[in-house]
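Feature request, filed as a ticket because there's no other form

It would be nice if the structure record came with a short human-readable summary line next to the C-alpha cells. Right now we just get the raw output. Example of a typical job, pasted below so the devs can see what we mean:
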Amino acid sequence: MSVRTEFSDLIRAMARRDWGAVDQLLDGLETSGWQGGNQVIGAAFAIAVNDRFAAGHSPTEVARFVAETREQFPGAESLPTLEMEGLVRAALGEVGLIDNLSPETALQMQIVFLGKLLQDRDPNEAQLEEFVADVEQTAAEYM
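Raw output as currently delivered:
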C-alpha cells in the first residue's frame, strides 16, 4: 500500500467515524515517518476549511469553530488555541499567522480539524470519493 493511499484511507476512515481504523492508520503512518503527509493532510485540511467557511468569515466564527473542535476532540485540548485559530485563518488566506508554528504541531492540528470538518460535513460515499480525489490531485501538485 502506498503512503498516499494510506492518507486517503485515513481520510475515509475519519469521514466514516471508524476510529479503530483511524488509530491503526495513524500508528502505521507514525512508523513510516509521515512521508508525504504534510502535502496530503494539508490539502485535505485546506479544501475542507475553505468549503466550511464563507468568503466573508470573521475571526469570531473561526474562534467558535476552534472552541467546538477542542470540546469535541479530547486530544485537541493540549493544542494551543491561538495557534489553532491561526492555522484555520491561514488556510483561509491569512498566511502570516503561522510563521512560528512547527510542521509537526500543524500536522497534529490539521488531523484534529479534519476529523471535525468531515464529521460536520457527513459526506455520502460519492461525496467522500470526490473529496478524496480532489485532495489527491491537489497534493500531487505539491509532491
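Something like this underneath would help us a lot:
Residues 39 and 143 are 7 Å apart (CA to CA).
The first helix runs from residue 3 to 15.
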